[in-house]
Structures are given as C-alpha cells and as structure tokens.
Amino acid sequence: MNWTRAVHHLTTLATTCDDMAGRPASIFPLRVGGLWAAGGLLGRPRELETITVALTVDVAAVPWLTEPAGARHWASAARLPQTPAEVHWRSAHAPVWNHRLERPVLVWSAADGVNDEALAAIADGEAEPLRLPAPAADELATRLSDELALSLRALRDRTGEYEERRWKPGKLEPVSDALWQASAGYLDLLDVIK
C-alpha cells in the first residue's frame, strides 16, 4: 500500500480506539489504553505491506505474540481484521517495546486521546524525534529474558489447556490458536536471545 494509505489506516485506528474507549465496559470488558506505531511507519515515506501497531491493555501480563481474553471481540468491533495491520497486544504494566517493537511512538491514549502531532510527524516521515529512546544493551537483554520467561509460562499453560480440551466435545480452534500463539512468541524470543 502507498504511504498515504498506510497513514490513513493508522489515523483511522487511532480514531477508532478513541471511539471504543467511550463504549461501555459491560460490552467491551477489555480496555485498550494506548495505540503505538512501530516498524515501517516510523521511517521515511514508502510503500508498506502492513502497518505495525501495538495496543496496550490493562492486563497484568500479555505474553509475546498472544492475545489477551477479549481481544478478538474488541478487534472485531474495531474492524481490525479488515485493516492491513500487524497488531501486537501488550500489557500496560510493562514496557511496550522489545526486539520487534523498536522505539515505538504513542499515537493515541485513553488519557489524552488522539496525538495529532505524532500522526502528522509520521505522515511527514519525521517521527524520529518522537520515538522512545533506545534501551541500553543490558536493559534490552533483561527485557527479553523477562518476556521469554513469561512466554514459557504461557506455553506451558496453553499446552495444558489444549491437552485438557483435546478430546472433549466442542470447538478446539480457540484453544489450539492460543497454543500456537504462545509457541510462536516463545520461539521468536528464543531465536533472538540465542
């Protein structure tokens, strides 16, 4: 997609996040608190296959490449499946950045709304001054180690859930998808750390 279209998708998603924040928690119990832009969106204007974003949620922990409970419901209402976006769900109680989400830029928050300055800078290819500072090597190593431990726990938990559910009646897809996500996140982190 061309740059203008990519920025349009990001802007639409920021506006959608703002709208979703005002919807009742009884219907959308998963509360998204921030939308961060990352990846190719933070460089010079060019063609992009997808936009990379992170959504922070008020959940104690979200293992890498997994979805918290309620994420699919929220994403469906926000029309995320129709958006050419690579979405990463992140806990609001931990740093949003890691080895793939390098120095992201906050474009929307529940507290402050849409950050028009950040969206304009991204549109102009001038997001560099707004990016988070790069972590020191030891800080990144600690972050990756913490994420790996969290992902291993998720992999063990979801393997147990799959084993429990495997031969019972009903759809296995939600359980197997959760296992696949936990596996993919763990393996991705393991590849980076080694």
Descriptive account of the structure:
The model has no long low-confidence stretch (mean pLDDT 96). Helix content is 43%, strand content 14%. The protein contains five helices and five strands. Helix 4 (137-165) runs antiparallel to helix 5. A five-stranded mixed beta sheet has the order 3-2-1-4-5. The relative contact order is 0.16. Strand 2 (51-57), helix 2 (71-77) and strand 3 (85-91) form a beta-alpha-beta unit. The longest helix has 29 residues, at 137-165. With 194 residues, it is an alpha+beta fold.
Structure, briefly:
With 194 residues, this protein is an alpha+beta fold. Helices cover 43% and strands 14% of the residues.
Defining key terms:
5 helices; five-stranded mixed beta sheet; 194 residues; alpha+beta; single chain
Say how many strands there are.
Answer: 5
Overall 3D form? globular
The run of helices and strands is HEEHEEEHHH
The gyration radius over C-alpha positions equals 17 Å
Helix content: 40-55%
Q: What are the low-pLDDT stretches, counting only 5+ consecutive residues below 50? A: none
Mean pLDDT: 96
End-to-end Cα distance, whole Å, is 34 Å
Summarize the topology.
Layout: H1 3-21, E1 32-38, E2 51-57, H2 71-77, E3 85-91, E4 105-109, E5 113-114, H3 116-123, H4 137-165, H5 173-193
Parallel strand pairs: 2-3
Antiparallel strand pairs: 1-2, 1-4, 4-5
